[in-house]
Automatic annotation (TrEMBL):
<feature type="binding site">
    <location>
        <position position="424"/>
    </location>
    <ligand>
        <name>Mg(2+)</name>
    </ligand>
</feature>
<keyword id="KW-0378">Hydrolase</keyword>
<keyword id="KW-1017">Isopeptide bond</keyword>
<feature type="binding site">
    <location>
        <position position="868"/>
    </location>
    <ligand>
        <name>Mg(2+)</name>
    </ligand>
</feature>
<keyword id="KW-0832">Ubl conjugation</keyword>
<dbReference type="Pfam" id="PF16212">
    <property type="entry name" value="PhoLip_ATPase_C"/>
</dbReference>
<dbReference type="InterPro" id="IPR023299">
    <property type="entry name" value="ATPase_P-typ_cyto_dom_N"/>
</dbReference>
<dbReference type="InterPro" id="IPR006539">
    <property type="entry name" value="P-type_ATPase_IV"/>
</dbReference>
<dbReference type="GO" id="GO:0005524">
    <property type="term" value="F:ATP binding"/>
</dbReference>
<feature type="binding site">
    <location>
        <position position="842"/>
    </location>
    <ligand>
        <name>ATP</name>
    </ligand>
</feature>
<dbReference type="InterPro" id="IPR008250">
    <property type="entry name" value="ATPase_P-typ_transduc_dom_A_sf"/>
</dbReference>
<keyword id="KW-0067">ATP-binding</keyword>
<dbReference type="InterPro" id="IPR036412">
    <property type="entry name" value="HAD-like_sf"/>
</dbReference>
<feature type="binding site">
    <location>
        <position position="664"/>
    </location>
    <ligand>
        <name>ATP</name>
    </ligand>
</feature>
<feature type="binding site">
    <location>
        <position position="426"/>
    </location>
    <ligand>
        <name>Mg(2+)</name>
    </ligand>
</feature>
<feature type="binding site">
    <location>
        <position position="746"/>
    </location>
    <ligand>
        <name>ATP</name>
    </ligand>
</feature>
<keyword id="KW-0479">Metal-binding</keyword>
């Protein structure tokens, strides 16, 4: 705390020229707060006043659950009976209590109650987990003013509008607050808004001057005031309001507002008064309600149910018409049925009534066509699939201890059909760490470590050369080419592979300027100035780490931190800042002794996204005034003097090389100032700073711009943006799998573009299309201009003839607001889809959700959104699949997500492995389900037609009960849980296999109807072959013919064998579990027949001793079973044999290679197949390496003729 107080003495606002303009009440009048949208009144320090109407504001309790105690039953039941099959079985269950039912009421109601109950229990469990995570947030503690200047802890959910809160360093704000004062005497505080807009650089907030004395607990004893402001709204960057305090009215703006879920940094504490709570806060206003998501396969299943229901209706109508005809014309002749004393159901005089009642009976009898157990089987399979995802050790993050988590299992198969990924940037792609890698000083490049891009390009070229060497016979020519390549590839140190940076933020390696060796360099003075610029030109605060004795830096951006660490490692350690000076410890000097130097800060012009540069004017110990400037190269080069361009050409070349290597670059320049020149300028600057009026900021920028001219170039820096581990490789693999990747970030454009380069979504040579809004008050003019930019860009892409040309679309939030309008969004989407990369920057959480909705609805393809903060919740909920990053600050994204992973890189395995498997498993499982139910259900129809549409079932009731529950359920569940067309390693080696999902190869209508046709064929074979075999001949040695029980049992045996053999043929991957379930189901059938036959005839009826006495001794029973099973499966065998021979799918080829062990015996062929098995992509690491290789080859081809010209002619 003492340390915080010492630092608090610095008036931090003096460091900022542009961020901390403080209008006073005299300069700028209070806002006009009246009319709709501006009705909120907050009585500060009087929370009880807001409990009365009309100020009855919302509590600070938040909920992200789908259901609550009251809505669970109606909403969950509605969800369940959304499913067509469940609706049908509900109707059947109601009818089952009437005499029309061919089955007992319990046999119809029990399965439905079981299926619906299980699904609802699963929904309740998943929502309970969300509720528990909400409670974690709601029960966090914060200090609240109680009375008499005493503050006590209160849970977040009990915070009310008007409460005065004390928030301490590194705590989140529990509600939207008005900043009253901070631990710094001028009311400055630093806020990290990563959860809101994704930006990592700290924002400076400032309190009103009038509330600065409220800087300790006692000061709030008698504090009161009234805030009149705007109503709750989702705009994060605006706020309009007035504070009435001590009979004065003061205007409020966004720089005094601390938003919920942002975090207090670099400030010991702040006091604030609550304005918006709970769902009224701006971050929650940006959230959308938890939607109910259903996968595409599940939605398509409804249509298949419609088809089957139509089939059911048709055969039921045929059955009822047949029954009515039989009743009218044949019933009078059937004296044994006593037609004269029958009821209405069988009355020859009322055939229409008989037909209609029989229709109801038939609809229930043929209900086996509609698979009720399909839904419960899918639920079981999905829960088990989710368990495998949760238990996957390859997706477990050791650092945070977080595994992957399937928070809902409804969407497992959707993971295998993703077309577009929409990703947040900060905390998702990046881990907010920069590494100083290279620099260019006075036209000389320093730093021998190479970036990942360069290493990969060199490695790939070496592999390509090896392949060429095998084919070439001329050894000398080969050597010449290899030497040429070596000239072009980057210099890397010998211990490249073993090197691991021991210093966070510093990966530089070059003995020429390390350890004081820079003193021996020819331009040592400029090198010293370069290092001093790094150590002086910043706004950071040093903090001594007492354990290590070294300094760490609290910087506004990771870049600044990396520069200071680099300066420290080069021997220029920044260790102290006072109100007017910075102190540098220079380890190496010409005298050989360490020196402490003080530089007096005269002015600081900080970095803004508009200026793209930062300048500090200092006076050194010799009295010399220096202007030190760092910024974007384009900005700095425009401001160089004629004699300051000495190193411009070399530096530009180095900057281009650094850009190609995916590094972030800044140029450094300086200027020596005369005392008189500085004084004159400073007078102008102070005038602008203290001026009153709306154009004050413009005047400041103009005056600053006057001084930042006639600069002399020192050099440039190159830092590697530390992405999260494995991000470039993951993006590369996903791109090879054919996925499109969009980045949606609240960060500024330059940062987003740099990250794009770092993770290979952008690269040198890629044509960037930047859509920006012009400055104009006329909205129509702005809109027309944006539409023209979009139209021109689309035209440019269409006219592009280079097949390797790649386009990247970059757009900011302001422009996006117009582009997402109804009259422009389709043109914008058309352009975005044509581009290889899309980066949207400065977007609000609401815009993220709207972009996601546009892609989802506009393309009609599956979208996946991934993010880690509260600002990503809307996007995560809007996408077909939402993935939250766990283990990063804040759990809002995880709470709203369908799946959570600890790091972005695990998305590769989640999609390419689990997604691919789950899609194929569920698709095959559903197709097989429909096949088996059609094959079984239609045999009931054939038999009924064969027996005069009597409503008679050929099978015993127990057979029918066991069919779905025991005899065919486990094999199909094992298919859905354990099936693998290829192993996980092969999925990752052959990412193009993933495209089978987005192209929906395994669940299109062709395949579905094919399986249904197979079911129809099997039903015909099973019924008619058995009828032909048993109808006209004896089946036992004693000459007895088969009765209905013998025929039904034989047919059922054939069904069990045919269906289980069919699923065995469908599977590609067997474990002992599949064998146990498939062959165990067949054995179970025979055991059941044996046991059932031994039970008393009062229970077993005609099946008494049927296996032992009737069927087992009859050879015809066994031969019929064999014949029917073979006949049923022959067409499928023929189909897959033809397909594998003449039209194999990708996984068929891989299975064959693996079966014949060609991957081990012929590595070259295996590598060739792997390189083929990736989608052609223009983004990702591989695309970048390919571009680099094309560039090197181009140079090689240009140099080859000159090499051949200079080589001596061989004697003839």
């Amino acid at each position: 705390m003492a340390g915080g107080r010492i630092r608090a003495r610095i008036r931090r606002s003096h460091l900022y020229t542009f961020s901390c303009l403080r209008p006073s009440a005299t300069e700028e009048g209070p806002h006009s707060i009246e009319g709709p949208g501006y009705s909120r009144i907050v009585h500060c320090n009087q929370p009880l006043m807001h409990k009365k109407k009309p100020l009855n504001y919302r509590s600070n309790y938040i909920s992200t659950t789908k259901y609550n105690f009251l809505t669970f039953l109606p909403k969950a039941l509605y969800e369940q009976f959304h499913r067509v099959a469940n609706l049908y079985f509900l109707g059947a269950a109601i009818v089952s209590v009437t005499p029309l039912s061919p089955f007992s009421a319990v046999s119809m109601i029990a399965p439905l109650a079981f299926v619906v109950g299980l699904s609802m229990a699963k929904e309740a469990l998943e929502d309970w987990r969300r509720f528990m995570q909400d409670m974690k947030v709601n029960t966090r503690k914060v200090k609240v003013h109680k009375e008499e200047g005493i503050f006590g802890n209160k849970s977040w959910q009990k915070v009310q509008v008007g409460d005065v809160l004390k928030v301490e360093k590194d705590q989140f704000f529990p509600a939207d607050l008005l900043l009253l004062s901070s631990s710094y005497e001028d009311g400055i505080c630093y806020v990290e808004t990563m959860n809101l807009d994704g930006e990592t650089n700290l924002k400076v907030k400032r309190a009103l001057e009038v509330t600065l004395p409220l800087d300790d607990d006692e000061a709030f004893k008698n504090f009161t005031g009234t805030i009149k402001c705007e109503d709750p709204n989702p705009s994060l960057y605006t706020f309009v309001g007035n504070l009435e305090y001590e009979r004065q009215v003061y205007p409020l703006d966004p720089s005094q507002i601390l938003l919920r879920d942002s975090k207090l940094r670099n400030t010991a504490f702040v006091y604030g008064v609550v304005i918006f709570t709970g769902h009224d806060s701006k971050v929650m206003q940006n959230a959308t309600k938890s939607p109910s998501k259903r996968s595409r396969i599940e939605r398509k299943m409804d249509y298949i149910i419609y088809v089957l229901f139509s089939l059911l209706l048709v055969i039921s109508l045929m059955s009822s018409i047949g029954f009515a005809v039989k009743t009218k014309f044949y019933m009078p002749d059937w004296w044994y049925l006593q037609p004269q004393s029958t009821d209405d159901y069988y009355n020859p005089e009322k055939p229409v009534v008989s037909g209609v009642t029989h229709l109801v009976t038939a609809l229930m009898l043929y209900g086996y066509l509609i698979p009720i157990s399909l839904y419960v089987s899918i639920e079981v399979v999905k829960v088990l699939q989710a368990t495998f995802i949760n238990q996957d050790i390859q997706m477990y993050d050791e650092e945070t201890g977080n595994p992957a988590q399937a928070r809902t299992s409804n969407l497992n198969e959707e993971l295998g059909q993703v077309d577009t990924i929409l990703s947040d940037k900060t905390g998702t792609l990046t881990c907010n760490q920069m590494d100083f890698l290279r620099c260019s000083i006075a036209g000389t490049a320093y730093g021998v470590r190479s970036s990942e891009v360069e290493l990969a390009a060199a490695q790939q070229m070496a592999i390509d050369l090896e392949d060429q060497d095998v084919e070439r016979s001329t050894v000398s020519r080969q050597k010449g080419k290899q030497q040429e390549i070596e000239l072009e590839t980057v210099v890397t140190s010998k211990d490249e592979k073993n090197y691991k940076s021991p210093i966070k933020g510093f990966s530089f390696e070059d003995s020429r300027i390390m350890k004081g060796n820079w003193l021996k360099e020819p331009k040592a003075d400029i090198i010293k100035l370069f290092f001093r610029t790094l150590a002086i030109c910043h706004t950071a605060i040093p903090e001594l780490n007492e354990e290590t004795g070294s300094y760490t830096y609290e910087a506004e951006s990771p870049d600044e931190g990396a520069f200071l660490v680099a300066a420290r490692e080069f021997g220029f350690e920044f260790f102290k800042r006072t109100q007017s000076s910075v102190f540098i410890h220079e380890r190496y000097s010409s005298s050989g002794q360490p020196i402490e130097r003080e530089f007096k800060i005269l002015n600081m012009l900080e970095f803004t996204s508009k200026r793209k540069r930062m300048t500090v004017i200092v006076r050194d110990e010799d009295g010399q005034i220096l202007l030190l400037c760092k910024g974007a190269d384009s900005i700095i080069f425009d401001r160089l003097s004629k004699n300051g361009r000495m190193y411009e050409e070399d530096t530009t070349r180095h900057l281009n090389e650094y850009g190609e290597a995916g590094l972030r670059t800044l140029a450094l320049a300086y200027r020596k100032l005369e005392e008189s020149e500085y004084s004159a300028w400073n007078n102008e600057f102070q005038k602008a700073k203290t001026s009153i009026g709306a154009d004050r900021e413009t005047m400041l920028e103009k005056v600053a711009d006057m001084m930042e001219r006639e600069l002399i170039l020192i050099g440039a820096t190159a830092v590697e943006d530390k992405l999260q581990k494995g991000v470039p490789q993951c993006i590369d693999k996903l791109a090879q799998a054919g996925l499109k990747i969009w980045v949606l970030t609240g960060d500024k454009m330059e940062t987003a573009i740099n990250i794009g380069y770092a993770c290979s979504l952008l690269r040198q040579g890629m044509k960037q299309i930047c859509i920006t809004a012009i400055s104009s008050d006329a909205k129509e003019v702005v809109k027309e201009n944006i539409l023209m930019q979009i139209t021109n860009a689309s035209q440019m892409i269409k006219l592009e003839k280079d097949p390797h040309a790649a386009f990247a679309l970059i757009i900011d939030g302001k422009t996006l607001a117009y582009a997402l309008g109804d009259d422009m969004k389709q043109q914008f989407l058309g352009l975005a889809v044509d581009c290889a990369s899309v980066i949207c920057c400065r977007v609000s959480p609401k815009q993220k959700a709207l972009v996601t909705r546009l892609v989802k609805e506009g393309t009609g393809k599956t979208t996946l959104a991934i993010g880690d903060g509260a600002n990503d919740v809307g996007m995560i909920q809007e996408a077909d699949i939402g993935v939250g990053i766990s283990g990063v600050e804040g759990m809002q994204a995880v709470m709203a997500s369908d799946f959570s992973v600890a790091q972005f890189r695990f998305l590769e395995r989640l999609l390419v492995v689990h997604g691919h498997w789950c899609y194929k498993r569920i698709a095959q499982m559903v197709c097989y389900f429909f096949y088996k139910n059609i094959a079984f259900g239609l045999t009931l129809f054939y038999f009924e037609a064969f027996t005069g549409f009597s409503g008679q079932s050929v099978y015993d009731d127990w057979y029918m009960l066991l069919f779905n529950v025991v005899l065919t359920s486990l094999p199909v569940i094992s298919l859905g849980v354990f099936e693998q067309d290829v192993s996980s390693e092969v999925c990752l080696q052959f990412p193009a296999l993933y495209q089978q999902g987005p192209r929906n190869l395994f669940f299109d209508w062709y395949r579905i109807l094919g399986w249904m046709g197979n079911g129809l064929y099997s039903s015909l074979i099973i019924f008619f072959l058995n009828i032909i075999i048993f109808y006209d001949q004896a089946f036992r040695a004693g000459g007895q013919t088969a009765d209905m029980a013998a025929l039904g049992t034989t047919m059922f045996t054939c069904i069990i064998w045919a269906l289980n053999c069919q699923i065995a043929l469908t599977m590609s991957h067997f474990t002992w579990i599949q064998h146990l379930f498939i062959w165990g189901s067949i054995v179970t059938w025979y055991l059941f027949l044996l046991v059932y036959g031994m039970v008393s005839p009062t229970i077993s009826g005609n099946a008494y001793q049927i296996l032992v006495e009737a069927l087992a001794p009859a050879p015809i029973y066994w031969s019929a079973t064999l014949l029917v099973t073979v006949a049923c499966n022959l067409p499928y065998m023929a189909h897959i044999s033809f397909q594998r021979c003449f039209h194999p799918l990708d996984h068929h080829i891989i299975q064959e290679i693996k079966y014949y062990r060609k991957d081990v015996e012929d590595q070259r062929m295996w590598s060739r197949e792997r390189s083929k098995a990736r989608q052609k992509t223009k983004i990702g690491f591989t695309a970048r390496v390919d571009a680099k290789i094309r560039q090197l080859r181009g140079r090689l081809q240009r140099k080859q003729p000159s090499l051949e010209t200079h080589s001596p002619m061989s004697p003839s």
